[in-house]
Each structure stands twice: as C-alpha cells, then as structure tokens.
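## retry 2 of 3
previous attempt timed out at serialization; input unchanged, resubmitting
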Amino acid sequence: MPTPSFDQWLGVTGLLAAYARLADARQLDDLVALFSAEGVLVQHRTGTHAVGRVARGHTELAEAFEALRQFPITTHELGQIEVTVTGSGAHARSTCMAHHISDVGATRVRYTMACRYVDTLVQVDGRWLFAERLKYNDWTETQLLSR
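## retry succeeded, writing output
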C-alpha cells in the first residue's frame, strides 16, 4: 500500500481530529461539512458488525449528529491512526475513546465508548473529506461521576 506523503498524512489526520473537535464543540454544521455531498456515516451496534444507523448525505448527517446535543459534555480522544493513499483518495483506520456526560437528576453519568473508525476519503478542491465513515463500538461502560 502506498505510503502517504507528509502533507497527505497531515491532511487526513487533521480531518480526523477536526471531526472529534467539532463533535465536542457541537459545531454540527461544520461537522457535516467534513463529509462529501454524498457522504455516508454507518454506525454499527456495539460489539457487532450489525448496522444500527446509516446517514447518507448532508441532511441525514445533520439529523444523526443532533444526537450529540443530549449530552452537556463530550470528549473524543483519538488513538492509533493508520493512513493509506489510493490515487486521488485515501483510507484511514483509527481508534477513539468517546466520553459522553449526562446529568441524571443530581447524578452525573459518564458513558464511554471504545470506537474504531474505517474511513474512505476523497479530495474535493484540495481538501480531504469523508466519503464513507464506518463506526464500530467495541465496548461501552457507564460510570457514576462525582460532581
């Protein structure tokens, strides 16, 4: 598999980091704009390869990302990232620990997901975008937090 140039690697990893940052900041319009016009997000059920939700195109992606608003705080921590370049496109594999904080009465709860992403990327006007983002949750954990 072709090794990406430094600029290609930087562009792809910047895209992955922007996804995490924009999700945490609830900048949902900007998050949607990280996908090509026909971009697809496929979310799989935890611990399986069974598809849970598919969002195609910017309208459905915007609807899917609205789910983030139910959490007052989220933190996405990126882990390993692997990038390969294929002509005018690229593929990336990455891991992420996603922490979602909820207030349940007087209690604060953290819901953590161990995520893996498998991405197909395209360049549009010199900018990397997601053409397809497959999200797998390997495991989840719920923990009570002190305030």
